[in-house]
Amino acid sequence: MSRARIKVLGAHELVAVDVNIVTNTITIKDSVLSANDIQFDTPITGTVFGTLLNYKGALDRLGDTVNEKPYNSPPIAPVLYIKPANTFNRYGAAIPMPAGISRLEMGAALGLVIGKQAVAVDEENALTYVAGYTIVNDVSVPHDSVYRPAVQQKARDGFCPIGPWIIDRQEVDNPDDLTIRVFINDKLQQENSTSNLIRSVTRLLADVTEFMTLNPGDVLLVGVPEDAPQAVIGDKIRVEIAGIGSLDNVIVDEKEFKWSGTI
Q1: Range with the lowest mean pLDDT among 73-87, 93-107, 142-156, 186-200?
Q2: Segments making up each domain of the chain, as ranges
Q3: Tens of pLDDT along 159-169?
Q4: How far from 68 is each of 63, 71, 146, 215, CA to CA, in Å?
């Protein structure tokens, strides 16, 4: 059991509670809640930004293609994309399988929840702009190209489960050394670590805010590891990040999906 600060349904400010990372439960005033009972209230009110090619293995997978048009060289700045509000989803909810699609990629990502306006921040002080950390499943339709925005592949309704909570920044000793695992039907399908990031958490924040402002409530994803596992209808997905918890969802036919528009 660890002491942490998280955001829970109905709360108007971050409150200190006991978090059991193993069982995904919290204790507030002697009441035990499961992650299914937890929902974000106000912390994520902005934009979720994804980052491409920030894992060493993901960039290595491209091989010599990074030296071909249109890039002609490996990216020298963060490659970003947006997960719009229609993609927002929550712990325990269904992820829709679009018609005509048979498999979806499960993109395990550490999310940095921004706590105050960040403009041209120094790497040394970058973490002071982070309110806390959460888990994000950056779901996408499998695709090969990284040269243009994959809107049709990444911006579908329900394609961004987030949660089940936000762990306060001070509760995580080193965000650049967190093990990330993806389980499908309780079978381990992927394991990686944020120690394999090309740009560390602080470096990424510094580089991104050099050319754009991050505002309170925005979430910056540090990237998705290479070889994202794929899932089909009926599969139960669990994304785990050490020290943060686990995010559980299930894949359903989009005909059975009802998007609530909330986390």
Answers
A1: 142-156
A2: 42-256
A3: 999 998 999 99
A4: 10, 6, 12, 35
Contact 83, 159 (CB under 8 A): yes
Q: Which pLDDT does position 11 carry in this prediction?
A: 43
Output the six-digit token pair for 57.
Answer: 């293995």
133 vs 19: CA distance, rounded Å: 14
Q: What's this model's pTM, rounded to 2 decimal places?
A: 0.86
Instruction: Map tokens 């986390």 to a residue.
Output: 263
Residue 258 is predicted with a pLDDT of: 73
Task: Give the model's pLDDT for residue 40.
Answer: 55
Residue 206 has φ and ψ, to the nearest 5°, of -65, -45
Domain 42-256: assigned CATH number: 3.90.850.10
Q: Where are the beta strands (DSSP E) in the chain?
A: 2-6, 15-20, 25-28, 31-34, 48-52, 79-83, 88-90, 94-97, 104-105, 108-114, 130-137, 160-168, 179-184, 187-193, 219-221, 230-231, 236-241, 245-253
